[in-house]
Amino acid sequence: MTKARKRQLHLGAFFTGAGSNVAAWRHKDTPSDGAVNLRHNIELARIAEDAKFDFAFIADSAYITKSSTPYFLSRFEPLTILSALAAVTDKLGLVGTFTTSFSEPFTTSRQLASLDKLSAGRAGWNAVTSALEDVAKNHSQDKLFSHAERYKIASEYIQIAKGLWDSWEDDAFVRNKESGQYVDLDKLHTLDFKGEYFSVKGPLNMEPSPQGRPILFQAGASEEGRDLAAREADAIFSNSSDPDEARAFYKDVKARAAAYGRNPDELLIFPAITPIIGATPEEAQQKYEQTAAYVDIQLAVKYLSRFFSFFDFSQFPLDEPLPDLGDIGKDSFKSTAEYYKRIAKEENLTLRELALRVATPRGDFVGTAEQIADRIQHLYEIEAVDGFIIYGYVQPEGLRDFAEQVVPILQQRGLFRKEYEGSTLREHLGLSYPVNRHTLARDAKTFQIQGG
User: Fold this and answer.
1) Mind telling me which Pfam families this protein's record contains (predicted)?
2) Secondary structure E strands in 219-301
3) Calpha distance 254→171 (Å, rounded)
4) What count of other Cβ atoms lies within 10 Å of the Cβ of residue 323?
5) What confidence tens digit (pLDDT) does each residue in 106-164 have?
6) Which residues pair with 238 in a beta bridge?
7) Which residues are annotated as a binding site?
8) Count of domains for the chain
9) CA 317 to CA 330: how far, in whole Å?
10) Binding-site residue set for FMN
């Protein structure tokens, strides 16, 4: 059981090849093939683990076009690279993206349970519903399910995964060489799930890891996404670090978790940020401008189109206010598309302005290490976040600068750990150990028989 402890800031590291800038591969100190460079990913993992980060995070998508931005065109499948990183790290959590719309729950559950066991309890699953229309055509289907139906499928999918991860009680594998007993088969349980979308018999052929089961992350900001996360997730990737918006989101999902009978403290909120650090604010701004210059307008428009199912924006003039985009993007990255449509309308942005803002976001974390630590501390202390995903603007420089300059300040202020306090991702995040449902039922039955 994870023991209670003082609230602590959490940090994850976003591994995305060359960096958050869509043309970061052009930076002189960044491997141009960073997305498929094992040594580069190992270097990032070691930077994160040396700084005592909670986890590394690998995003993914199963569809590209010729108009995709460079680092989407060739990148490692998450399970493969995370398994490799498990072999060269000891404590760092390993979180990967796996779809609930175009994969089988038994396969995904087994893969994640295997990574969890392989890494001694450090695996996490970013459960996504897939938002690009033609992902379906790579999986023998004609079109994407509607946004609402994708979340219904995801809910059933996650229930199955959790059920399969409870196939074996924690102490089922005896492996007693003297008695010859390998396993207690009374502690093996078949799922026999039959739902609207899936039918899965089980049991899973993988025993629990030291953290019981993988940590579940979810990133939906829509009503359906928030509700699913509040009901099932251990952590949420949020999309805002604006204090008012972040606090509103934080309070909303925590309240939803409580309404489901959960402890709100067992649901952690993580926005992604892109720190750019300089000895002075002017130096940090100069770093931003240098990397922003790598992105030309054609690349920026391509990147923007990804959030709208690769909608062809070329029909609009670059330097006139965007027209009303209507329901474009409603079944893609819904909440992100709605956000971009909203700011375009509110600020009367042209296509050029919106595309460059999306492709080269400056954000509020450009400045000195002290300034960035101050902003992190403020958002954490007003309970707008529980932690942050650090997205290096170029890699490895962005992550290394944060690890070497900002993390020590957070440690000095007592906000972030100086050493790992456990070995599993669940322990890093301060989350309770999930008691197997069959063990609970057995204990309840024993309690009744004994007259409790």
Assistant:
1) Bac_luciferase
2) 235-238, 268-273, 276-277
3) 33
4) 12
5) 999 999 999 999 999 999 999 998 766 677 677 777 777 788 898 999 999 999 999 99
6) 271
7) 60, 97, 147, 151, 222
8) 2
9) 23
10) 60, 97, 147, 151, 222
